[in-house]
Amino acid sequence: MSERHIEIDGQSVPYEEGETLLEAAGRTDAEIPTLCYDPRLEPFGGCRLCVVEIEGSHNPVASCARKCEDGMVVRTATDALEQHRKTLVEMVCSENRQVDVDPLSGFASQELAVLADRYDARTQRFVGRRSGQSRVDDDDNPFILRDYDQCISCYRCVRVCAEQEGDYAISVKGRGFDTQITVEFDGKLNESACTFCGQCVATCPTGALADRKALRHVDTPGPIEKTRTICPYCGVGCSVDLLTKGDSLVGVQPAMDGPANKGALCIKGQYAYDFVQHGDRLTTPLLRGDDGELHPASWDEALDVAAAGFLKARDEHGRHSIYAIASGRAPHEAAYTTQRFIRAGFWTNHVDNCSRA
């Protein structure tokens, strides 16, 4: 069977059956803007920024929803299309309280600001009535900031909650300027079916839903740096990006290209990182002295005492008197080392992990 092609801005592009114009254009130099699009979700076609011209078609079409057809001739950046996009971004910017939000707000929180700069759309020429009613003060959950003055009704949050998480915790009420993202009975998130996975925050392109914990560190000095690692909480192996400012861990974001999670996280992976810098976390080994109190010691001293204790227990009570429970907050390599130590060192299978439950 011969390979199928479409033409995008003069370039012949092969495509697979069922692929959209936006997906095919992603393999070219074309830069088609979007606001309601998330590659993990079903096409929505609400923002109309991704419209393209198809030769022989009377009107532009949404490239995120239009399937490729053999022989199509597509133009993605004509003067008419670019003017159309500029006007749309101007309208969106005019309705929001602000365009610029701190990058700590969420993974996609800079998308509107980037488009506003690209199209020089901070003109406020359409400023007027605004929609959205923020729940910043009356929803006191510790994780998600609900700043609906920034909402553009892209519904990415609603769709990711339903399509990716299967929670259906958030929905939409009202129409027109009365449109509002909400939960059942218009209540608080912590009184709803929300599991605080943070996926609504990660997909929001404007900061209307933001990471409340990360935003506590807005004034922490230093640039934001990202470090890719693996969430330590269970055996799934979700990829995450740690956000740091200097030596301070200020937030966690899901890795959209993580092979195990594809941008998804649970509440622990997303928000349970305070232990890293908690004041009660041990920073040096402690040994109990003759006075019954714990005193700082070197690692060599601590390991010698621990080894002697294991051997004494084995000699006096047998190998099955020894068991280990690995911490769910330790790396997977540490969990492997723990079970190896117990099984190979003492020939017993008395080992478990607190993240198993």
Describe this protein with a few key phrases.
357 residues, Ubiquitin-like (UB roll), 3 domains, single chain, 16 strands, 23% helix, alpha+beta, five-stranded mixed β-sheet, three-stranded antiparallel β-sheet, Alpha-Beta Plaits
Description:
It is a single chain. The protein is of the alpha+beta class and about 350 residues long. The protein has three domains: about 5-75, Ubiquitin-like (UB roll), CATH 3.10.20; about 90-275, Alpha-Beta Plaits (2-Layer Sandwich), CATH 3.30.70; about 285-355, no CATH class. The chain is about 25% helix and about 15% strand. The chain contains eight helices and 16 strands. The chain has helices at about 20-25, 80-95, 110-120, 155-165, 200-205, 265-270, 300-315, 330-345, and strands at about 5-10, 10-15, 50-55, 60, 75, 145, 170-175, 180, 210, 225-230, 240-245, 250-255, 285-290, 295, 325, 350-355. The protein has a five-stranded mixed β-sheet, with no helix packed on it. A three-stranded antiparallel β-sheet has the order 10-11-12. A two-stranded antiparallel ribbon has the order 6-9. The protein is elongated. The two termini are about 50 Å apart.
